[in-house]
Amino acid sequence: MTIGVGLLGLGTVGSGVAAILASPQGRHPLVAALALRRVAVRDPARPRSVDLDPALLVTDPAAVVDDPDVDIVVEVMGGLEPARTLILRAIAAGKPVVTANKAVIARYGEEIAAAAEKQGVYVLIEAAVGGGIPIIEPLKQSLGGNRIHRVSGIINGTTNYILSRMAEEGAAYGDVLADAQRLGYAEADPAADVQGGDAADKIAILAGLAFGGPVPRAGIPTEGIDRLKARDVTYAAQLGFVVKLLAVAERINEHDQAEGIQLDVRVHPTLLPKHHPLAGVHGVNNAILVEGEPVGQVMFFGPGAGAGPTASAVVADILNIAGIRQVGGADAGLDPLLAASSWRPVSLADASLASHRNYVRLQTRDEAGVIGRIGTCFGTRGVSIQSIVQFEATEGSAEIVVITHQVRESSFRDALAAITALEEVQRVAACLRTL
Amino acid sequence: MTIGVGLLGLGTVGSGVAAILASPQGRHPLVAALALRRVAVRDPARPRSVDLDPALLVTDPAAVVDDPDVDIVVEVMGGLEPARTLILRAIAAGKPVVTANKAVIARYGEEIAAAAEKQGVYVLIEAAVGGGIPIIEPLKQSLGGNRIHRVSGIINGTTNYILSRMAEEGAAYGDVLADAQRLGYAEADPAADVQGGDAADKIAILAGLAFGGPVPRAGIPTEGIDRLKARDVTYAAQLGFVVKLLAVAERINEHDQAEGIQLDVRVHPTLLPKHHPLAGVHGVNNAILVEGEPVGQVMFFGPGAGAGPTASAVVADILNIAGIRQVGGADAGLDPLLAASSWRPVSLADASLASHRNYVRLQTRDEAGVIGRIGTCFGTRGVSIQSIVQFEATEGSAEIVVITHQVRESSFRDALAAITALEEVQRVAACLRTL
């Protein structure tokens, strides 16, 4: 039984998928059952890395979706539109969809899921998060027996590359970014990566699967690495920490309530203790740590981007659809694990009620007693301190770094306001979360 | 639709499974569709950590398999018999099986798979390797588009705990083992763990899935950590390596041949460069690294044993069976990915033809020129050396450590024979593989 595949897009990922389908030898035998039937491209004349029959190429993507020989629609064109419309069109035609488009899923996931459920088709998204790392399937199919507490991860390769080099070389953010752009590790417009938006898209998707309900993407507090100073990376290292752009989704209330569960979801540069499992993830690699009861901590690590890894994830989804076709006939039901419908409401918690550890760098006058007064400001507001260290002082100015224990965000902000009001304190030079 | 579960065994893992089924709140809703129907125990009067209706307990395991209310048979009793017979009995009755029993699968996997294929039922084994780490499912369902080159892993928690403590404390193997036994991290009879047999069982299973055909378990060269000296762990650290008990399955011939593919499969203490992804895996944790084209390297990390993690994996398998039941009716086919039938012949390569890097510690007379003569012995046999270092010498005796580049095993053995024949060389004190 041959299964017809239609590709929307033949860029990096699309070419990678086409290359796998064109050389099934040595892969799972089910790959040989897949046949590329039609490919939507912008410019059919453009030279391609993969050798395709020109008759497969069309410029109208709707023609791929509508082709009766296309059984599975693979959307690897990126962007919000026309990707969203084409995905919905495929679903309406009763065709399962595989997509690598995290932006569309993070924003229109609910609409797409509702349409898919109504039509009884799968929309699979392994490639949308973590590149080649199998993380979506394990979340859906291997961890269902658990109560998930937290999902955290390094899920943007560009920023992890930049942070790795900042830590190794003590280099400034802007310099490493420019170099990363030159080397092709960062886009000409790096905003989605360095400002954290891409990671926020991905943690919204992961949290939705891990916790069983759609996560409001727009409400995720997001801070990138674009204002991070080399100095803080250096101080963090001296205190035994590594700075990573972490995306975290954590359950706040312990028991399910009628109104569902509350999550603290966020993206920000974070100090990780050097022995934390995510601290050793360098370069463009990604890693996702899932914590739950009774499994404990499990981590998934690998290449977070690139044609090959992402194509591996896309083909995994195609294979899953092809495999499950052999189970039921024409009127088969959906596997609830693979379909991953939402099963409880999820809302974002009030960020001021959440608790975190913090790293603060203060610029102060270089005077005796400053550390004591800062310590008192924290202490009287119930903010417990793990360490307070004075770093190099120059011309009457000193830098004091405080790492707090886990404290409620509102108490921490109160203390910080009081510290800013101290005469000796010139400014809060940096403020980062700490695990 | 309720799905009846029958448990064979109510030890650590069985109790963990029963605990999950007894408290479905907050887990995937499909858990609530599972009902524990019958449990085989040796002594029904024994007190249990989990609160079960005594009416569920039976002492005859066949009564669990035969119970018409039991839809899925979960074998968590361990041991070869009667586990094997009960698994085959369940299959013969057309009931899918979930098992955590790596020993049975590594030895009787072919027999069991053939019976399962004939009856059209699943035998799922996520819990057999890597405890709570999702690794079986990803290998079967997420990496099928790849040509796998190598699967390597730290897949025995007991030995990794011992090696971690030897490295941290410079302690002797025997002392740490005794302590591990006292703390419950090692069995009273530690042979299966420390001699590598458990890891060999597991790599046979992983390789079978990754490469698509059954691996002859009995042919796997296996070396444990029971003869490892603290001194070699220390020297390795000084040279920038960490010693781990690694299980490796690697493809030797690049192209598929009529007689199938050849694998180099082995278990032995191995020096890993400090920055290798597996080098940072400490304590009772496990990690499996999968390398393939086009995915590159992906790694799966987590708790390799324990009631909770292993129960998480068992329940994952039960859920997968329950989920796929909703797809097809009574006469549904098997999902070829989940069923994971073998699809090509696999054989073990002649070990002497394989190539490896090596670590050798030689005890020699403390004389000028020894290093040169050892170097020459390697050089004339085409064994390229990465480093040769003399460590502490006492009373006319010196210790020389050689790390070779990748060389064919037969050439290395030839050189070693010539070196042993040198007058100045007293003995080959240690010989370990190096990645």
Instruction: State the domain count of chain A.
Output: 3
- The best one-word shape of chain A is elongated
Terminal CA distance of chain A: 51 Å
Radius of gyration of chain A: 24 Å
Taking pLDDT < 50 over at least 5 consecutive residues as the criterion, the unreliable ranges of chain A are none
According to CATH, what is the class of the largest domain in chain A? Answer: Alpha Beta
CATH superfamily of the largest domain in chain A: Dihydrodipicolinate Reductase, domain 2
| Chain pair sharing the greatest interface | A-B, 67 and 67 residues
Individual helix count of chain A: 14
List keywords for this structure.
homodimer; about 425 residues; alpha/beta; Rossmann fold; Dihydrodipicolinate Reductase, domain 2; Alpha-Beta Plaits; 3 domains; six-stranded parallel β-sheet; elongated
Question: Could you explain how this protein is built, in words?
Answer:
Two copies of one chain form a homodimer. Chain A has three domains: 3-131 and 308-343, NAD(P)-binding Rossmann-like Domain (Rossmann fold, 3-Layer(aba) Sandwich), CATH 3.40.50.720; 138-303, Dihydrodipicolinate Reductase, domain 2 (2-Layer Sandwich); 353-434, ACT domain (Alpha-Beta Plaits, 2-Layer Sandwich). Chain A is α/β, with parallel strands linked by helices. In chain A, helix 1 crosses helix 11 (307-325) and helix 4 (102-119) packs parallel to helix 9 (197-211). The first copy, chain A, contains 14 helices and 17 strands. In chain A, a hairpin with a 2-residue loop joins strand 10 (285-293) and strand 11. Chain A has helices spanning 12-22, 61-66, 83-92, 102-119, 136-141, 157-169, 173-183, 191-194, 197-211, 230-238, 307-325, 336-339, 370-380, 409-420; strands at 3-8, 34-40, 57-58, 72-75, 97-99, 123-124, 147-154, 241-251, 261-273, 285-293, 296-303, 346-348, 355-365, 385-394, 397-404, 407-408, 425-434. In chain A, the strands form two sheets. In chain A, strands 7, 8, 9, 10, 11, 12, 13, 14, 15, 16 and 17 form an eleven-stranded mixed β-sheet that branches. Chain A has a six-stranded parallel β-sheet with strand order 3-2-1-4-5-6, with helices on both faces. At the A-B interface, helix 1, helix 5, strand 11, helix 11 and helix 12 of A face helix 1, helix 5, strand 11, helix 11 and helix 12 of B.
